[in-house]
Amino acid sequence: MFDIPSMQQFIAWLGWGNGIGAIAGVSAVLTVFVILAPVVVGLLLHGVETLQFKVICAFSHDLARFFVNYLTFPGVVIHEMSHLFFAVITGAEVRDVCFFGDDDGHLGHVTTHSRGPWFIVALQYTLIALAPIVVGLALGYFLLWYIWAEPHSLWANVGLWYLVISIINHCTMSESDLEGYFRGVWIFVIPLFLFFFILGLNA
User: Fold this and answer.
1) String of DSSP letters for 103-135
2) Per-residue pLDDT tens for 159-196?
């Protein structure tokens, strides 16, 4: 594990001084970082998944579709279930749930409709989009911890690593996820900035 740097450490690293302006500047940088970090992680994971697909496609396009849609099916289910779970707990309307890909090789999907006051709608967009990354990385972390915590049989290790690969392979952000994320995440800008700014003042 690692320790999260303090506001004083961030300010010192950037060399912006110790005044209000420095604290505000560091708070703005950290706010942008927190907002963009899930996007970067999601895009990196999406890139890995796309690379795998293209490598397998070099041998067989049908095999690549089978690998993404069916061989790593647990990851598809968890991806869509995470969308569904966050849609339900935030009050969005769920219109369609599909776990299998269509004839074009696309994965499953969850179709939702946001509703409620503007801030609830923004929250729905953000959390529903982030759901696969949050749930996927959390499950992946706990599975890895379980794998390394104690010895397992050969077949147990095969099954556990299969689940890890399936889950991590699909905890990505699709284009529609990115669109939804940026439609709602703006409501967190001011609260995040104020949170970091107050931390800086009290450091």
Assistant:
1) TTS---EEEEE--SSHHHHHHHHHHHHHHHHHH
2) 999 999 888 888 888 788 889 999 999 999 999 999 98
